[in-house]
Design brief:
The complex is a heterodimer.
Chain A lengths: L3 E4 L2 E4 L5 E7 L5 E8 L3 E10 L2 E4 L7 E2 L9 E3 L8 E8 L13 E2 L3 E5 L1
Parallel strand pairs in A: 2-11
Antiparallel strand pairs in A: 1-3, 3-8, 4-5, 4-9, 5-6, 7-8, 9-10, 9-11
Chain B lengths: L4 E3 L2 E5 L4 E6 L7 E6 L6 E6 L5 E4 L2 E5 L5 E6 L8 E8 L5 E3 L3 E6 L1
Parallel strand pairs in B: 2-11
Antiparallel strand pairs in B: 1-3, 3-8, 4-5, 4-9, 6-7, 7-8, 9-10, 9-11
């Protein structure tokens, strides 16, 4: 089954304790992205990656790191989490090779990771 | 800065009624997507519109892209409780840089 898998789904942790949210896709997609969703603000892009070893900042990258060492994986790292990073996080992938203009292809989202930083 | 304005932000109507949700921007879109998100899940693509004036239909849902490609609308005919969810318009700004509207939370009451 084609899917984007995020782990963990829920995490409560404390300020300053490094954490990693994993994301994996099995669709051979070129592009992967991370978003955070906050009430009244919609989804905002944190980082995106157009290919292995190619990443770029989205609209709200401060306090986050990413890496794309393999095509299928795109982990989100919070080196020193703070309470303002409490949010619902989504990973997405798109860009199936040979299926036309990548910008018009659907984004496939994971089911989300709810992070609470105390 | 919010580049996409969706209205209304909240809408609660009775089953069988019609409704329209709007998505507006001050700048031109190259393409626009509509997604629906249900609780506990990620957004799922409903449609992509690319050409100014384009109209696409998905069963009881009708999507329209404005002639100037600065706005879009989603019209639902005879709404059903299964239409309940958060509807998001998304502007694709090339190289997979997406900008989301803040969403319209739709509730259809039986």
């Amino acid at each position: 089954e084609a899917q984007v898998t995020q782990n963990p789904r829920y995490l409560i942790t404390v300020t300053g304790k490094k954490l990693t949210v994993t994301c994996s896709q099995n669709m051979n997609h070129e592009y992967m992205s991370w978003y955070r969703q906050d009430p009244g603000l919609g989804l905002r892009q944190i980082y995106y990656s157009m290919n292995v070893e190619v990443t770029d900042k989205g609209d709200v990258p401060e306090g986050y790191k990413v890496s794309r060492k393999e095509k299928r994986n795109f982990p989100l790292i919070l080196e020193s989490p703070s309470p303002n990073q409490t949010s619902l996080y989504f990973c997405a992938s798109s860009g199936e090779p040979g299926q036309g203009d990548y910008s018009n292809q659907p984004q496939h989202f994971g089911d989300g990771t709810r992070l609470s930083i105390l | 800065t919010q580049l996409l304005e969706q209205s209304p932000q909240f809408l609660s109507i009775q089953e069988g009624e019609n409704l329209t949700v709007y998505c507006n921007s001050s700048s031109v879109f190259s393409s626009l997507q509509w997604y629906r998100q249900e609780p506990g899940e990620g957004p799922v693509l409903l449609v992509t519109v690319v050409t100014g004036g384009e109209v696409k239909k998905l069963k009881r849902l009708t999507f329209q892209f404005g002639d100037a490609r600065k706005d879009s609308s989603l019209h639902i005919t005879a709404a059903q409780p299964g239409d309940t969810g958060l509807y998001l318009c998304v502007r694709v700004q090339g190289a997979q840089k997406l900008v989301f509207g803040q969403g319209t939370r739709l509730t259809i009451n039986p």
